[in-house]
Fold:
Amino acid sequence: MRTRNMRKLSLLFTKDGLQWQISRSKKVLEEKIWLKDEETPKNLVEEKLDEILASEKFSEISVISSINHFSIVKEGFDQHDLGYDLISYNADVRKDAEELMLSVNKKFGIQFYYSFPKEFYTKIKQLEVPVHFNFSGEKFLNSLNVKNRKEIHVNLYHQQAEFFAIENKKVILYNNLDAASEVDFLYFIMFTLSKIDFGISETYFYIYGETTENETFISEMQKFVPNLKIVFDNLHKKNFVLS
Structure:
């Protein structure tokens, strides 16, 4: 196994995908993304994770999960034994195959319980290098600059999106959804607005992430939304959540 000092590995787990970056002193040196489809092996993510973990001895590893097994509670909630039960309201949970994780966002006073595949967790931890785990929703939320108004912040992935509804600097709603089409994203977000009383004309929309890949979503939203801004467009070696 080759050793290169001070090279950091960042891993992003999404719906049926894995993206990784290798960096040194905050400069991204290498980047790859792997997405499962009908033509790739079913265990593609597992294979690529094994490959990158065995490639060299990294100085540290950062892991971000965008897998939509999560639940949100107020900061300070400490009944951690209920974590799996809370997540199970949103997704099917297999306790024997998923590691329960906690991510706290002090900026907005909330915390996320999320589960992460135990197989991946064990492989990463057994390397015995410093590792930090986080949930994409917490990382996304912590990066936002908000104002005293109604705002929707959407982070786009490949066949996936997560978004926050924020009013007067307070989180009203968070969701993370998998979808086969960009139209599904649009429908769900617009439906959500109607349920939380966010009027189209008074709400400010901010878009991040894979904006080029989701051009249809953005162009369709622009037909309905007067206040829309693309804040961050993922480019090669430049990823919003991994930055």
About this structure: The chain has a mean pLDDT of 94. The longest helix spans residues 182-195.
